[in-house]
Design brief:
By secondary structure, the protein is α+β, with helices and mostly antiparallel strands. The protein has four domains: about 90 residues, Uridine Diphospho-n-acetylenolpyruvylglucosamine Reductase, domain 2; about 120 residues, Uridine Diphospho-n-acetylenolpyruvylglucosamine Reductase, domain 3; about 120 residues, Alpha-Beta Plaits (2-Layer Sandwich), CATH 3.30.70; about 80 residues, Alpha-Beta Plaits (2-Layer Sandwich). The chain is about 35% helix and about 20% strand. It contains 16 helices and 19 strands. The strands form four sheets. Strands 12, 13, 14, 15, 16, 17, 18 and 19 form an eight-stranded antiparallel beta sheet that branches. Strands 5-6-10-8-9 form a five-stranded antiparallel beta sheet. It starts with a helix and ends in a 15-residue tail after the last helix. Bound molecules: flavin-adenine dinucleotide. The site of flavin-adenine dinucleotide has 36 residues, from strand 3, helix 5 and strand 10.
């Protein structure tokens, strides 16, 4: 059965508005966010409801056609775009954008997979609640993708990863069966917690069509603080102090390099340095609570102590929403700010929090020797032990082809030596399949393969992602 026949049958199910075959219409679905990777596909299917998703998956299972689920296509490991074969079909959830239920008393809402993350945050806010998942791509990424990558972001320290924010799921399984697991229960110990298998599975075990999302009280006072520090070890010392004083009220604790901050102030429109002086390292810290006021004097107190002990060289507290937004623009714009400086090689690693300074020192020493033409920019979620190391490499395809695998493999070695992870929050996708097999134990890989065969016996759900060669 040819792919053309599949696309014709899919068009009968979805109608012409649910199928894109024109080259220029498909482009957006075939290119990754940073336009570094491109796949091929004869068609993009856009079902409008769970029934249509199920009908498409059933058809694909019957005909053995591989599907690549896609939500906002902001994923950073090329799991949301098809491979280059032209034999995989993109299944976009972008038309499924309704919020099916809102329950402020039960602290949840039920959202379809195609809802944009920022819209869900707004819907929660309209209920006087908080949906705490927050990341730089929130204006484009969609909850189905966030769930499928178990996204982290800037509030993990307090609220956990997406895994902790999902109460129930609706999933279309590999044979087209719909599993309605949309339970809104805080307690439910009735056997295996099946929803967790689909969270972070990157579309390889089922298609997420809707989710029950946990909401939290909306913070009423937020204090955002910028500090200049001279080395990463100070960040760890300050994290301990803030935790001792503010405990669970700390939502974000982010580290940036002076290089990255300067790049943001230079290249991002309207962005200025938050403080006058220049420094090698910066911290962006956010503390929130549900009371109306009283946090600011406590923050001022700890800041005075920090300066009295010379732990920070400069700093400021955001005194307006505009100032706060500017600080966050610098943090969220780290990749964007450096994108025109060369070819950016991205990474996403984690180690124990206390090992972060060691890792940064070892990485700097290693790459100064092995890749002297590359600038290393580590930044990110210090509070979670999770940093993104961006490497700015020369814009030369031959040199990038040589550097990229070596840089990422060496970084995985450095991280592995500290018992860390080579993918803290972005997942495996197609980009890190080889690393997964190399770095995970045989028994872990075998259990994963077993799960894949159980949930997707025909191998039609995102083949080549997470586990290559299935
Ligand atoms: C600027 C920027 C900042 C980012 N910051 C962070 C960050 O701080 N923390 C973080 O964790 N990530 C971050 N990311 C990456 C992150 O994984 C994504 O932004 C987001 O979680 C993916 O959502 P998406 O809707 O774009 O998913 P997509 O990119 O469309 O898909 C991601 C994966 O999930 C699968 N998938 C998508 N939808 C479904 C579905 N409905 N059912 C089953 N499988 C599905 C896809 O096949 C793919 O494998 C960032 C990305 C960008 C571009």
């Amino acid at each position: 059965m040819s792919l053309n026949t599949f696309v014709e049958s899919a068009t009968e199910i979805l109608g012409p508005s649910g199928v894109i075959t024109a080259a220029d219409g498909k482009e957006h679905y075939l290119l990754d966010f940073w336009r570094q990777n491109r796949g091929e596909s004869p068609a993009v299917l856009r079902p409008a409801n769970t029934g249509e998703v199920a009908a498409i998956v059933r058809l694909a299972a019957e005909l053995g056609v591989p599907l690549v689920p896609q939500s906002g296509n902001t994923g950073l490991v090329t799991g949301s775009i098809p491979d280059a074969s032209g034999e995989q079909i993109v299944l976009s959830l972008e038309r499924m954008t309704s919020i099916r239920e809102r329950d402020p008393a039960g602290d949840y809402l039920v959202a379809e997979a195609g809802c944009i993350l920022a819209d869900i945050q707004q819907a929660a806010s309209d209920m006087d609640r908080l949906f705490p998942l927050s990341l730089g791509a929130q204006g484009s990424c969609r909850i189905g993708g966030n769930i499928s990558t178990n996204a982290g972001g800037v509030n993990v320290l307090r609220y956990g990863m997406t895994r902790q924010l999902v109460m129930g799921l609706e999933v279309v399984l590999g044979d087209g069966t719909i599993w309605n697991g949309l339970r809104a229960l805080k307690k439910d110990n009735t056997g295996y917690d099946l929803k967790q298998l689909f969270i972070g599975a990157e579309g390889t075990l089922g298609i997420v069509t809707a989710a029950v999302l946990r909401l939290f009280p909306r913070p009423r006072e937020t204090q955002t603080l910028w500090l200049a520090i001279d080395r990463p070890a100070v960040a760890i010392e300050l994290l301990k102090r803030f935790q001792a004083r503010f405990g669970e009220l700390i939502t974000s604790f982010e580290l940036l390099t002076g290089f990255g901050v300067d790049a943001a102030a230079t290249h991002l429109p309207g962005v200025r340095h938050p403080i006058e002086s220049r420094s090698d390292w910066h911290l962006l810290i956010e503390v929130e609570w549900s009371l109306e006021e009283g946090l600011l004097p406590r923050i001022e107190e700890i800041v005075e102590e920090i300066f009295a002990e010379d732990l920070a060289t400069d700093g400021t507290i955001a005194m307006s929403e505009e100032q706060r937004a500017m600080m966050w623009r610098i943090r969220e714009g780290q990749s964007e700010a450096t994108r025109n400086m060369g070819y950016i090689i991205r990474s996403d690693i984690s180690v124990k929090v206390r090992d972060l300074p060691v890792l940064i020192d070892r990485a700097r020493a290693h790459y100064a020797k092995s890749a002297p033409d590359v600038t290393l920019i580590p930044f990110g979620h210090v509070g979670d032990g999770n940093l993104h190391f961006n490497f700015v490499a020369p814009e030369d395809p031959a040199r990038v082809a040589e550097l990229k695998p070596a840089i990422l493999s060496d970084l995985a070695d450095l991280v592995f030596a500290l018992d860390g992870s080579f993918s803290a929050e972005h997942g495996i996708g197609r980009a890190k399949c080889g690393e997964l097999v190399r770095r995970k134990s045989g028994i872990e890989v075998a259990m994963m393969r077993q799960l894949k065969r159980t949930f997707d016996p025909k191998g039609i759900l995102n083949p080549g992602v997470v586990l290559a060669g299935e």
